[in-house]
């Protein structure tokens, strides 16, 4: 290889080889200008090549990041909300949750600091990600419309209220121990983008539920949540869909993910018959969300004890 280079003195490598050689004793020393010219002739091609390599690497890196930012997350499983099987799964999940919330079970009388409470035994349910995503695809837009319908105290059919953002085409979750991944697909101008966050659920000793974001993802590119949330909060009008702008829940969204405030001060659901279902723990594990609850009922202190035993609704399980 060296012989081949020496036989081709015009190449950059050959020039570098000769420049690096020790001159013979009868060789006249080169002047400064000659040395600079020789260095430019020798190093110039290498610098150009190096610069081109750097540019190519940067272009490849940018294209790679751009491609990954547009890519669908690895955990994402497209759900067709019109698919009869998906609709059936969503309906079954909603009915199962309703049944568990309202199921009547035996209760014990417990004396607390605020008075006497009827408490059921603890009960647990597990939600699979595919079931949950079916419900999110089929029922979530209608549920949001219903919530806003009642908040505005309107009359008529809640499903006629069209509040779901047109560019928010899909919402999904994934349960990966110990995190909950929540993501959304945004379609703007035929260019779908996927935004998601890795949340850590925590039920603290004071009873508050926290959902702090550890990472925020654009496609398959992940960055620390703190880097993104502060800037996103300043540009809320560009980030939050127009239908949700100005809502207290939307304004609190960034603070919740940043860990500045709890997701719920009292994580409980109040039932129409006076009972309440209190969340005791929330755990993400192997594609399932394990939810542990207890149902409580506060007796009427003015009610007759015998009548209360017969008539008062017992806690649901």
Walk me through what this model shows:
With 317 residues, the protein is α+β, with helices and mostly antiparallel strands. It folds into 2 domains: 2-70, no CATH class; 84-311, no CATH class. It contains 10 helices and 11 strands. It has helices at 2-6, 12-20, 32-70, 84-102, 129-138, 140-151, 225-234, 236-239, 248-257, 305-311, and strands spanning 107-112, 115-120, 123-128, 168-176, 179-188, 191-203, 209-218, 221-224, 268-270, 276-285, 288-297. Strands 1, 2, 3, 9, 10 and 11 form a 6-stranded antiparallel beta sheet that branches. A hairpin with a 5-residue loop joins β6 (191-203) and β7 (209-218). α2 packs across α3 (32-70), α4 crosses α5 and α7 (225-234) runs antiparallel to α9. The longest helix has 39 residues, at 32-70. The radius of gyration is 32 Å and the shape is globular. It starts with a helix and ends in a 6-residue tail after the last helix.
Number of β-strand runs? 11
Beginning-to-end CA distance, first to last residue: 82 Å
Q: What is the tally of helical segments?
A: 10
Count of domains:
2
Specify the biggest β-sheet.
6 strands, antiparallel
Order of helices and strands: HHHHEEEHHEEEEEHHHEEEH
Beta-strand content bin: 25-35%
Q: On the 0-100 scale, what is the average pLDDT?
A: 75
Give the proportion of residues in helices.
25-40%
Q: What Rg, in angstroms, do the CA atoms define?
A: 32 Å
Q: Based on CA inertia axes, which overall geometry fits?
A: globular
Helix and strand composition category: alpha+beta
Q: Runs with pLDDT <50, length 5+?
A: 1-25, 59-63, 303-317
